[in-house]
Amino acid sequence: MVMTDQNGLMLDPVGLFRSASPEARRTLGERGRPRVFAAGDELMRQGEQGDAMHVILSGRVRVERTRPGETAPRLLAELGANDVVGEIGVLDGGPRTATVTALEETRTLELHRTLLAVVLIQHPDVASELLKTLSQRLRTTDEILDTLTGGGTG
What we know:
There is one protein chain. The chain is α+β, with helices and mostly antiparallel strands and about 150 residues long. The chain has one domain (about 35-110, about 120-150): Sandwich (Jelly Rolls), CATH 2.60.120. Helices cover about 35% and strands about 25% of the residues. A four-stranded antiparallel sheet has the order 1-8-3-6. A four-stranded antiparallel sheet has the order 2-7-4-5, with no helix packed on it. Helix 1 runs antiparallel to helix 3 and helix 3 (about 115-120) packs across helix 4 (about 125-150).
């Protein structure tokens, strides 16, 4: 979907792309797929293959994970505008590590793995920010595990 010259601007406030070049943001904005999810719709389901990530443009989502033997999912996070979800599965091609559900009408820009790979090769600054985002998510997960188990993970 071709929008306007505003394509890259929608990604300006997104932490992951903030330091990316205007050209990289424009490429992602032009080639990404705009999506709208109603409250209760799943953006992705734990265990499914991940071939795209979502940049949340507006709305809020809940990120939950169900562990084997548990009946109720554990809340990992609630995210909103300018956050990203699905980055782990899109990078390693593995199954989704969590289910992400819209809490209200949520608009996203869906970025397919192939598009992201091209942008990461052409714009290494995006790769650096993606690594920072992944590191922050890992630290947050460690903190959650520490709280749940009552121990220290270092």
